[in-house]
Please model this.
Amino acid sequence: MPGIYHANTSHEILRPIAYPSEGTKRDPRPSWYERLRESRRHAAVYSDRSTETTEPKISDKSYRQSNASAHSLDTIDALKLEQTPEKSSSTDAKPWHKHLNPLKWGEVPPVPLERTVCPESTTNPLTKLSFGWMTSLMATGYRRDLKLNDIWIVNPRRNVHSLSEPFQTSFGQRSFGKANKVLLMTLYDTFKRDFWLGGTALLISSICQVLVPFTLRFLLSFVADAYTASVARTPAPDIGRGLGILFGIVFIQLLQSLTTNQFLYHGAMVGAQARAVLTGAIFEKSLKISSRARSAGKGYSDGRITNLMSTDVARIDLAAGMLHMVWAAPMTILACFALLIVNITYSAVVGFSLLVISVPALTIATKSLTAKRKAISTITDSRVSLTTEVLKSIRFVKYNAWETSFLSKLRGLRKKETKLVAKLLTTRNAIYVISISTPVFAAMLSFIVYAMTGHTLGVAPIFSSLALFNAVRIPLSLLPIVIGQFADGMACLKRVEEFLLAEEHQEEINWDMEAKDGIKVRNASFVWEKSASSEDATKEEAPKKSESKPVTEIKMVPPEPEPFSVKNINLSVGRNELIAVIGSVGSGKTSFLSALAGEMRKTHGQVSMGSWSRAFCPQQAWLQNTSVKDNILFGKPMEGWWYDTVKNACCLDADLKQLPAGEDTEIGERGVNLSGGQRQRINLARAIYSKSDIVLLDDPLSAVDVHVRKHMFQHAICGLLQDKCRILATHQLHILSKCDRILWLDNGKIKALDTFLNLMRDDPDFRVLMASTTQEDRPNANGTTRSKQDTDPKPAANDASADAKPGGKLMKEENRGEGHVSWAVYKSYMASSGHLLLGLIPVILLVLAQTANAVMGLWLGFWTSNRFALSRNNYVAIYVCLAISQALLMFLFTASISNLGSISSRRTLDRATEKVMRSPQSFHDTQPLGRIINRLSRDADVVDNQLPDALRMFLYTMVLITSVIAMLIYYFPYFAAALVPIILLFLFATSYFRVTARSLKRHEAVLRGKMFARFSESVSGVSTIRAFGLQTTFVHSVRSAIDDMNAAYYLTNSSQRWLATRLDLVANTMVLTVGLLVVAKRNVLHPSISGVLLAYLLSMIHVIQLVVRQLAEVQNGMNSMERLHEYATALETEPEHQSNAISVTEAWPLRGEITFSNIHMRYRPHLPFVLDDLNLKFRGGEKIGIVGRTGAGKSSITTALFRIVELSKGSICVDGFDISRLALKDLRKRVAIITQDPTLFKGTIRSNLDPFDEYSDLDLHLRKTGLLDEERREKLQLDTAVEESGANFSLGQRQLLALARALLKDSKIMVCDEATSSVDLETDAKVQRVMSEAFKGKTVITIAHRLTTILHYDRVCVMDKGKIVEVGAPLELWERGGEFRRMCEGNGVVRESFGRK
Model:
């Protein structure tokens, strides 16, 4: 079984234990383990025992200590204890006080071997009503920490698949008719059964809520009659009358309890299920949404889609829970008014008029929250989108030392966000205070009018009315909250609805399985969609104009260009034909392939494909965060022989042997632990393995070495795919002679289409083009062609793969806290507000407010009994003062909570974001991006909005309960004795609940993080998923993750209701106890005091379960705070400043001289050195190329120079300064780098060239014009929009812009990592000339795959296994005949090549 292993004592090899099946008779003889245990008791020498297949019983922690001969026993103990740690502690090992808890006596429940379906659907109605089906899980969670297998699987009726079918059907029908509130009515159609079950339960609960205080009148009448009879010494009423009324009140309370819990449960289930189905719907829509809808003008970026799924859907979930209160609260208020008329006649009209006036006023005020929430959502979207984009490119950000600048932008957005959140919470708190104070003032006015009109303040009508006014307080206080949540929910529903109704991707392709050709295009034109909000959006090669103002001070900007289009294409591709697509950067190669992949809109003509099966290899390979094997299989079943054949054809065999777990090695997000060549080869292997009849290849040969390129072209593209319809976009002109035909594109049009021989014969431009290619495909001097494979393992060149664990798993499991939330988290939350003592201010204000409230009730009692013999006006004056002071203090309390919470939240998230940005690259390589974004968005939203509310309600309910209990003990000292068992029951139930609920919530948080990661990863690969036609596979994958998350989420809600049902029994026990005391002391205690106590006690009953619920909410909020706190405090960061740090001038470095002295570097302490005793000196102004097979340590030189990883030994000096003593910012800002994978951010070309406004527009134009020809310069202006990740530019264009950005930096030291791998040879030649001119006098370090780019360099350094093999001038090394000569021969470089520049 998973996680349980059996150890062989001879070889200490772990193998799975076979559990005996049911009915299997166990061997009566003691096992080797039991015999070994017995021998330990009597001897100091232990001997090995024979093994058996039965599961060893482990119950004593002490037996983990062993000698050498018992090593196998230790292994089993350790593994078994990891599986069921509770069994590791014997009874004797526990402290004595642990034995006093009877709930922990007996055997600890074992961890189930597999997950089972939730038993709710199969249990009886009584158990459902009491939530008894949760008891077994609660008991298990109390005895030991819950494991994943303890979490029941979601009921089939509630899984996303079952819910999505009726949802999609209803949504389709309603959206087709263009009805209003389509999404709202669709959710109603889907969940109306649970919705109205909860509504019916609330109706019964509301009736009971009104009946209880009215029935109190009869009990108080009995008490008053008895007291009067006692004073007058007349016959007293029968005690049976009082007991009967009391038992009736208790019964109504019990009925209210059961129905209230059913209402809350069904409401929570409706919200949770709505969240699940909307999350699934948003993901499905993200696979269908068109380019127009996703373009920058509309703004449906990956970050915004993720925010819809996280924040907006969560608010819809919250709003659905209490939605029925919108109609139930007014109904309850009206019922209370009717009974108040009965109690205090027309005097109730005065007070009720105040209530009537307050409700619309509160509603109007609440509606203002919608506008505030909309403004907050806009800023939150911007913050989350920017955070997502920066973290996606965090390595590039670190290379350029841009953390501080981006953090400044994020802090600015966050400051605006928290200011708006504080205003929203303050408004909401004011509404809350008014809502809970209005009944107080209403009662005050009614009683004053009642007294002023000549009525005697009788105990029964007055305190029954007080109880009714208190009953009104609950619906009245909830009503604005629910309206606010409803307003939030409606705003979020509208946002989600707009997304779900957005324009969908339409693939206008005719599928003809009987067609002769694989692809047939007739007079077809394609265009990238324009933005829905702006007419200047483009896609891919086409630039896009933003809405910012043109740079008129430099030159007049030409008219806004039309979106890039591919025009008048006429082409037929045979079912086994290979066509090469060539052209310069921006000519339309990627657009043409994207059009055939269905990503562009067809404006004219016809496209037919002869097969449903189509594979697409995009320029930038999209890889999943899963194993290498699963990325190749890509949802297809495993076929061993075919899989092995594909691996060999794509040169992956040697790579897999060197990866930590071979083909099972986990690939990091975005392939961070693989080289560019490995990513492209896995990308190609995926397309081949799919056995698709049509294969679209977008330059898969650009990022690999020449000999690997030859092998892949010969064995993969022309081998395994020889009977497929293939279109290959490429810059590798030397392979054109092996293609069936060549399609030459220029500015989106066909320039030429013919065979290689015909073009060479008839087209002079083509002959000129071919003359510029290298001789890499020509034979070597000895007549042979080098064919040794590129191993390309990259463990030595990438710190991400170094982080891979021995089992091949790269991504670390998310930390799931054990036990209660640390007090350090609470302390940090309070301290972040400014000072720990500031946390006492809300508590002091609340105690004063509740004291005023309690005294006000007692004062009413004194007034009715005329205890102090004051005038009526004096009683009224003091009563009014107490009411006003209570309201004022309550507002100050809520305002202080919101203000301090807002400050704390902002500071905590700022620290967490900064720590994440400044954490080492190894952290980002081993953490899914979705997990990080989950904490910085969803958890931040909880701490912003939900935690202050939960804290406010928890403190309020706690102080309220404490004040009522204090009054009860004061007047009924014997109640203290009865209170002891009641408190014990309360504490037992609460602790029972808290342990399990905390564990469930943490499981839910971890599973939610996994769902976020899967969601965000899949959204970023939509084009690949669509091209392969795997939408259904990924929808099922995300739905499975949602169900896993909801399994814990549903149980969290159920556990709250389980507790509330039992706490209500405790509360009703208190009512019964106090009622019996009141009846028993009816002759002694004044009825006015009994009225005060019973009125406050009945109002407190509903608060008892609320206090635990709010405690759970506080803990849930603190779980989010804990996760942010972990990032804010526990994350390791790169060393910013050292104690012995040295400062450098602005002009440093002056010479650009770099010295590597005795360098030893490894990525992790247990790994081998990737740079081993490296000694190398780069002279100032020297151009040096670094070559070697991938994995030789070339990229590690860059890693060491930028201090991405600190050295184990040795030093690197730049102009004589040891860089280990420099601040990272000083170092990285003064060294420029051009990476192989260019990074662009959403914005404009200007903002990408100069993100922080450090240069003038003139500088920007000069840098840009040096790299672009006249035609492209007309299209690309500084204000041309750049979409997220530069999606509206080809890879070649992105490389040119990245190069322009590096040129702008004008550093003395330049590092180039194959900066022109995705541009055509003509553009490459231009770039090399520009670089040669711009880099004069600068130190240039180039990591090269194309040896032709470094033949004119001053020196070349050849590396292998982290060591220098040889170094010298290129021609000198070639003539020497060493490793560099062999590499040149393998790349087609001959002696004549060294004369070229």
User: Anything to note?
Assistant: The two ends are 64 Å apart (CA to CA).
